[in-house]
Amino acid sequence: METTTDIASRELWEKAKKIYLDTIVSQEEKSQVERYLSMIVSVERNGDTFVVCTSNAFSAEFLKANYSERMKKCLELFAPEGKVELEFKFREAPIPSIIKPIPDQSKRQKVSTFVSTMPLNEEYTFDEFVRGPSNSFALAAAQAVVANPGKGGYNPLFIHGGTGLGKTHLMQAIGNEIKNRDPSLAICYLTAEEYLNEYVNYMKDSNLPGFRAKYRSVDVLLLDDVQFFQKGKQIQEEFFNTFNALKDNRKQIVMTSDVAPKNLPAIEQRLISRFEGGMLQEIETPSYETRLAILKKKAEGLEVSVPDYVLEFIADKIKSHVRAMEGALGKVSVYLSAYPSSVLSNEALEHLLGDFIQKEQTMKKLNIEEIQALVAKKYSITMEQLLSPERTQSVVTPRQLAMYIARKFTTKSLPEIAKMFEKTHATIIHGVRNIEKRLDVEADLKASLAEILAEFGYKLSDKMD
Ligand code: ADP
Ligand code: MG
Fold this sequence. Notes:
The chain is of the alpha/beta class. The chain is built from 20 helices and eight strands. It has helices at 7-22, 27-37, 57-78, 136-147, 167-181, 192-204, 208-216, 233-248, 269-276, 288-300, 308-317, 322-338, 346-352, 354-365, 368-378, 383-387, 393-409, 414-421, 425-441, 443-455; strands at residues 40-46, 49-54, 85-90, 157-160, 187-191, 220-224, 252-257, 279-282.
């Protein structure tokens, strides 16, 4: 049977995806679902069957096992026949996706045939991005890149800042806008993690030249979360060469990271200098006014109308992550769509958003000195040892564990933490990453961490991402 990638199917898929995401209450789950959905490279329609292809075999399996039932239900809500089938497949060379914008043929412009490993999220546009003092420089730099990709002084553009503050949104807005202006440009968006995965796959197939050719043929490379490159030396070498090739050919590179390049201790110096060689911009935590403006913007896109006092309440209570604010807004909107005429008192809001608010408050409550003192006590070392430069393992582990707790369970900034530990930023980041790696494999360490956290009334799952 013929495969269709018509507009009606595309709309149906988009609607189903939206309702799927809108009806997830837990923010953590939502982020996970979003992450997996972003690995979908194409969707074909084959009669009643939607065939979803992903960029790797694991995500196809995962989507199938965890999401197919609910996704099917969501599709059936909109399908005129009311019945659909869903299949998940791994396809190495994806066909053009129906999720991608269908180019306006009337312009008769050449359209790039480059297929990005991860599709751009069309909702991440400049129009949807709220400007405020915390992000105005990064936004201006992004717009400068769009005006003159590859050719201006902003190459590379490196955007850094904490989780959930809009880096990915801004980066994808660059991609979406460049694509609108010139569909002939090959725009490639992906995370550094996915870049590494692909590298490994090409290597397995003894096709590194293919990998290089692919990434050196792009006009705009949008590489998200480059802190991930700290995991390997070989990928850094590989990227170094691609970076140079693109830059020499005046192709645009945009990168994001959770910290500034100089605070990426496990990344080679020559790459750090490349990262710093263009334009460096930070996105900071938004002010109350910006938080409220973001919430108003997000609320416009909802089917229910959320009153201002609710938006003000959320902006006031949730300060650290834009993503958490969105989660809270989602929860209230689900409630309001069930009880549209209800007026929510502050107590009712506090109750409804209890999880989000509690998380925010406990985050603030923990102070670094208490963390240090408790960890030192648990490991039977003194505070002096914990803060010393001593390198024996029996002192390094508790020191790094305390750094990890300070970084992942409080809202303290990196400079504040560094000061409290009398260390450099780089040392803190290195310590935190080291513990992260060890926690993956050392059950004992994980148990000790859980025990320490429990004394503060925390759980491992309270970690900020
Ligand atoms: P990061 O990549 O920095 O972790 P994201 O770009 O994923 O953060 O942003 C998290 C969420 O917050 C997204 O849904 C994004 O649309 C939203 N967001 C963040 N900053 C803004 C902003 N200034 N205007 C509108 N939405 C924003
Ligand atoms: Mg991101």
